[in-house]
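Example record

The entry below shows one chain as it appears in the dataset: sequence first, then structure tokens.
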Amino acid sequence: MIKLTDFNKPYYKMKEVASLLGVTSKTIQNYVNSGKLTAIRSDGGHRLIEKQSLINYLDSRGMLLNDLGSVKKNVIYARVSSYEQKENGDLDRQVMRVIDFVGELTNIVVLKEVGSGLNDKRRQLLKLISMVLNDEVSKIYVTYKDRLTRFGFNYLELVFKSKGVDIIVLDSFENEKNIENELADDILSLITGYSEKLHEMSSGRKKKLISEIESL
């Protein structure tokens, strides 16, 4: 049995996983190719196995011992506004930046998602809030404030601090071009949401909503 507390990194080298499972690196490559394990490419082009994927595999084989108990987690939260950014590796780069900046972290949980920073009902964001309220979190790490939320960061910070949780922000200012592009995506997402609601409303309510859109 392999203890859950033994996993203190979000990503593992192929050789590390091979040694852990007692198989060859070629076998691990086959596991990745067949979908049994999930891997990303590092900046150097090396395959890295995702921690959660490895945990899920071990659990499915009955090889995992959950000994975490009430140990609090360090959460790395990463977000992008579009699937194009995800496909370009922006989510993984955010996670790797935190790891490189902070150094060794234990009991790490990585939450990644694609969604507008204006959307306060994002699945992973709600999961993070739930974890904080349940006293499961030690610290939260983000590359920029707006990765967590476009507006209302101070409110989240206040609530989290009341639970003894600090939000660690790596950088104060994001690339201006990235901000402009993401704001455009967020506004487009907002307008799309309003447009979808138009089809479900009466004519009177439609006029009111159109007035709201024009005032943006």
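Notes for this example: Residues 20 and 170 are 32 Å apart (CA to CA). The chain has a mean pLDDT of 84.
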